[in-house]
Every structure is written in structure tokens, then in C-alpha cells.
Design goal:
This protein is an alpha/beta fold and about 230 residues long. The chain has 2 domains: about 150 residues, SPOUT methyltransferase, trefoil knot domain (Alpha/beta knot, 3-Layer(aba) Sandwich); about 60 residues, Orthogonal Bundle (Trp Operon Repressor, Chain A). It starts with a strand and ends with a helix. The chain binds 6-chloroguanine.
């Protein structure tokens, strides 16, 4: 069982995404648990303030250290975390090998950033890992958290019906997945490659490997000489 606590100022945004399809199955099978924690519960004063103007001036609010500190300490008093991850565009870019590694944990916390980011002292003293989901800017870390939980959750053993299915995904071996087809074999004069209809398993496997390599050379040659 992997348990993921997501700390956010927008809990409503995260309610539905984990209630469908593969992530729902993971939850039903007790392989994955996702808890949403509303950071505003730890906000200061009667307005439950969680952000403030930045020192030195400049546009945009910054998430304050104290509510985040109190939230993390409260959660840590109940369980031990393998990682406390801050989702931020300047973090390490997520890839399949990072998702694989994270799927081996028991308990992780995700902190969703907002506004201009969080007080640097949170990052210096409380966060153990920083992750970005790509080189573009999102309004908040919540959508990134959904992506991260999805990429990790589907890797947990037993989540996918066909155990080999996650292994044959694109990127799992630094190759894009080969093309796939289903019935009918002919549509509108468009044909399915004949080898796939042959029933010859070894030849089909050979065709798929070749097609995966060709597709990767054409679309993502960078993957073929990358380490991760
Ligand atoms: Cl993790 N957060 C935000 N706000 N923007 C992003 C991101 C994360 N990853 C890419 N862009």
C-alpha cells in the first residue's frame, strides 16, 4: 500500500481526479490511498491566512512558512514520510524512472505550490524533493500533483490487470510504444499490418520491437541516447 498525502489550498480541485478508472481501482484494491489536506486549516488568524506579500517587494503573494510548518509537523506526528515533495516549475523534471522510484515508497507527502511560490525556508528545511512536470508554468501545483499521482499509482503491483502492461508502456525501456490496432482488420480501405493477424507470437514481438525503435528514432531520438 502506498499512501500519498496532498497538501493544498484548493482541496476541491483534487476530489474527483482520483475517483475514476485506474486510480479508483488502485484505491478499491487498497494498493493506493490519497488523502487531501486543506492547508487553510493551518492558516493564521481568523482569516486563516496562508500567504503574504514578499519581502523586498515584487508582484505576487508568497505562501507563508508557519502554516506549512504546522501542517507538516502535524502530519509527521501521525506518520513517517519517505519523501516530502514540493511541486514547482523549478524542480527536477518528472520522467518514468523518477515515477518508478517513487512507486517503491510507502508514504509520501506532496505540497502544492501557489502564487509566487513558497517561502524559501520551507524548501531549505522541510522539503526532501522538488519535482516539476515539464518546462511550462501552471497556476498551481495541484494539476501537477494529479499527473504525479497518476504516473506513480499505475505502477503499483496489482493495479493494472495485465501485469505486463505497465512494462510495455512508452518510456519504460526508453522506447516509445509500438502502434496498436483493434477490429476491424479493414476499415475504409485502411489495413492492419498483416503480421499482427498471423498468430505468430515470436514474429509479432519482433515486429513490435522494430516498430518501437523506428517510432522512437523518428519522434524522440533523444531517448535513444539518454541514461534515464
Ligand atoms: Cl509542479 N507546478 C507549477 N506551478 N507549474 C509547473 C509544475 C509544477 N511543473 C511544471 N509546471
Amino acid at each position: 500500500m502506498l499512501s500519498i498525502d496532498v497538501v493544498t489550498v484548493l482541496p476541491e480541485l483534487l476530489k474527483s481526479p482520483f475517483e475514476h478508472s485506474i486510480l479508483k481501482r488502485a484505491k478499491d484494491k487498497k494498493l493506493l490511498e490519497v488523502n487531501i489536506i486543506d492547508l487553510r486549516q493551518f492558516g493564521l488568524g481568523k482569516n486563516r491566512q496562508v500567504d503574504d506579500y514578499q519581502y523586498g517587494g515584487g508582484a505576487g503573494m508568497v505562501m507563508m512558512v508557519e502554516p506549512i510548518f504546522n501542517c507538516i509537523k502535524e502530519l509527521q506526528s501521525k506518520s513517517e514520510y519517505d519523501e516530502i515533495i514540493y511541486l514547482t516549475p523549478d524542480g527536477d523534471t518528472l520522467n518514468q524512472s523518477k515515477a518508478n522510484a517513487l512507486s517503491l515508497n510507502k508514504k509520501i507527502m506532496l505540497l502544492c505550490g501557489h502564487y509566487k511560490g513558497i517561502d524559501q525556508r520551507v524548501r531549505d528545511h522541510l522539503i526532501t524533493m522538488e519535482i516539476s512536470i515539464g518546462d511550462y508554468v501552471l497556476s498551481g501545483g495541484e494539476t501537477a500533483a494529479i499527473v504525479l499521482v497518476d504516473s506513480i499509482g499505475r505502477l503499483l503491483p496489482g493495479v493494472l490487470n495485465d501485469e505486463s502492461s505497465a512494462l510495455s508502456d512508452s518510456f519504460q525501456d526508453n522506447l516509445l510504444a509500438p502502434p496498436v490496432y483493434t477490429r476491424p482488420a479493414q476499415f475504409n480501405g485502411w489495413e492492419v499490418p498483416e503480421i499482427l493477424l498471423s498468430g505468430h507470437d515470436a514474429k509479432i514481438e519482433e515486429w513490435r520491437t522494430k516498430a518501437a525503435i523506428e517510432r522512437t528514432e523518428k519522434l524522440r531520438p533523444d531517448l535513444l541516447d539518454s541514461e534515464s
